[in-house]
Design a protein that fits this description.
- The structure is a homodimer.
- Chain A has about 220 residues and is mostly helical.
- Chain A folds into two domains: about 60 residues, Arc Repressor Mutant, subunit A (Orthogonal Bundle); about 130 residues, Four Helix Bundle (Hemerythrin (Met), subunit A) (Up-down Bundle).
- Chain A contains ten helices and three strands.
- The first copy, chain A, has a three-stranded antiparallel beta sheet.
- The N terminus of chain A is likely disordered.
- Chains A and B meet through α4, α5 and α8 of A and α4, α5 and α8 of B.
- Chain A binds a DNA duplex (30 and 30 nucleotides) through α4.
Chain lengths: ~220, ~220
Amino acid sequence: MPKSVLRPTVPAESAPLSAHDRVYRGLRQQIMHGELPPGHALTLRGIGKSFGVSMTPARESVRRLSAEGALTLSASGRVTTPELSNERIEELASIRALLEPELGSRALRRAHLALIDRMDIINDANARAVNQQNPVEYIRTNLEFHRTLYLRAQSPAMLGLLETVWLQLGPTMRALYTRLRRTTAPPHHRLILEALRAGDDAALRLALRTDVTQGLRHLQA
Amino acid sequence: MPKSVLRPTVPAESAPLSAHDRVYRGLRQQIMHGELPPGHALTLRGIGKSFGVSMTPARESVRRLSAEGALTLSASGRVTTPELSNERIEELASIRALLEPELGSRALRRAHLALIDRMDIINDANARAVNQQNPVEYIRTNLEFHRTLYLRAQSPAMLGLLETVWLQLGPTMRALYTRLRRTTAPPHHRLILEALRAGDDAALRLALRTDVTQGLRHLQA
DNA sequence: ACGCTGATTTCGTGATCACAATTTTCCATG
DNA sequence: CATGGAAAATTGTGATCACGAAATCAGCGT
């Protein structure tokens, strides 16, 4: 594979993206966006083939993702997406309920109108995904709505931690959202946007917390 | 499934521990306990040799640890322990200040006297490490003091997240503790123990928060 | 003494392979 | 028709290798 020939003048702004990175990002997105159900089995050779690489980068990606809780390794090394117990789901939800209000609060001071408008647009796409009953698109836009806000918090470590929590919840969220097909958009997104416009810290924290906890508690029924 | 019959002479109680796991655990402990200064360079071949394995398990361990923020990969793939900016240190400290009071509070309901006694003993060892001005032993016993409490919270995901934060801070804590050799044990451990004995949730949360923030703020001078 | 350039060494990456263990398949037996 | 177990296919593990890129070093010139 004459890779250097095929990449004559690499656009300097973007990294060349190693094989491992492509596989990692691809798998990570599939998992976080709920494209895989809980308990879905994967193989290193299969992953490698679907990304056009050998086992080696596939294995590294799997190790990395399993370290983040996005994949489960059985005792014999078999790879599956995690099947979370109810206890674990509740714990992850409570972590979200702890981190997200904090991130929102930090972002509030730096949020300007352009940001809120952008979130509004994303929220529309989210509502559309609900109408289409498209779980993957719903999860994707929902996460993008939150991440757009949290990026303004300028707290990369905290956001990174939160993303690993989202990652762990990906397959479970898919299962829950496909099981009971919801027909109404998450109601608290409006409250979040209002609190942002008003610059009301307490209201924003509350809206974020209830959005997270209600969203998951509503599904555990 | 008569697997136990077919198994030759494996010690049943402990997993065989794959090469990758041994390397991962070994490196992780070195980093978390502050045995390596910030910016310390590592090589895959060197890691492999020091653990008696080939590059492959070494590489997987490094990938995993870098995913957790315990190691930094340069653009060319070079491996070093992270050199944290002051901003990053503050952010990680505020994450600790967010998670640790929550974990402590959850543990409080389940904490019995034997646990507090154990923490007392660990705290003595911690004070001894201060007198000996032994940074590694100080960090180790300090973390063990906290972890002993948080294990009772029965919140493995939250504790896991916290440990990755500790991991990221390992080399920096070593640098800080060796730079200014402190001569007095952390004063808030007493407050933590008192709050535990009194069953006072608010006091425990406060003591944990100040222990975390003061501990790091005291060193940034 | 200092800086630059070219050679050499070191290093990470990704592919491939042998091997052992597991899982699956399939057929014979009750 | 179910069931048990042997054979075959599949899978993860770890070692090794070639390759290109990066870092280190040597030697030269200024």
